[in-house]
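Justification of resources, computational component.

The compute hours requested in this renewal are based largely on the per-chain cost of generating structure records like the one below. Each record pairs the submitted sequence with a full structure-token output. That output is archived, and it is also reused by downstream analysis tasks.
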Amino acid sequence: MTDLEQLDDKHVARLVRITGTLLGVLTVCAAAPLRSRVKAACHVVQRVAAPAAAVACGRLYWLHRRRVVRAFAVSDAVQEVMLPPLPSRVGGLDLAFVYRACGGQARVGGDLYAVARADAATRIIIGDVRGRGLPSFLDVIAILSAFREWAPQPVSLVELSARLEESFLRYLADADDGTGSDTDERFATALILEVPDGESCARMVNFGHPPPVWARPGELTLLPGTPCPPLGLSTLCDLRAHESTFQLGPHDTLLLYTDGLIEARDCSGASFPFLERATTWTWQDRQPLVHDRLRNVLGEILEDIVNHCGALPADDLAMIALARHQEGGKAVLPHPADPAPSEDSKTMRWC
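The structure output for this chain reads:
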């Protein structure tokens, strides 16, 4: 803690003591049965103490607001570094995404996403860390740091997955201070996708994550692949990462998401009918730009969730819609993310 923060804490503590004393005096003067002379003195004390208590309470409120603003500024800066907006175009793909942390009540949550280029391929990760709060976000940082280090390297998707697991286990071991912490119960579901440029074949590894939705004209299905244990749980079973392949053609759309979508509930506790509603979403339309079409799909999904739940879900929510762009799969440089219209620019990211 800096000297300035210590001084601020002392100032707050002093104000709390003064405010408590003034309010105590006012309470005694108002409640105690007193003689006329003492009552007159109490009236004088009340006229002095009441404004002073009001000023002290106002000062405390201002200091609290200032601390909240500082905390939000720090969390915003952390989010911009660890969870920057995805590019609208990278490699041979167009992307659109939505990110909303903790139902809009926080800047950062337990969902994660990132994109990286590796030779002539685009690699994407989306995941969900168990729990909430600071420990879960530290887990997010650990996984994203490992992905950003290894994803651009010339390693296979299976080897990349193994490196992520090794890195996360090492991080958990270092975080275990031997005081009964919950590191044994910390894990993360994740899905890693690799889409080579100019090829119809795509690959993925699924660490216990909800399967992506694969849609093409007249057809919609889930792609579970070969699920592996979530990151951090490989020591409990002898299962290793398995790579699954599928076709991603020029007119196909892929939706990656976290469980904030499928576990959204209405006021009666009924789950969002994900598969039933997915068949009604407009996966193909006449939008001239693929990115606009992808954003429209995400907009439909959010509208459906609000209609079902009465509001956006209280859990973390991340969604990525992607498709090959119209230049025939030719690799291009990443385009910056578009400005994000949202219900609250501080709590929802939509690009």
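The radius of gyration is 26 Å. Confidence is low (pLDDT under 50) at residues 1-7, 328-346.
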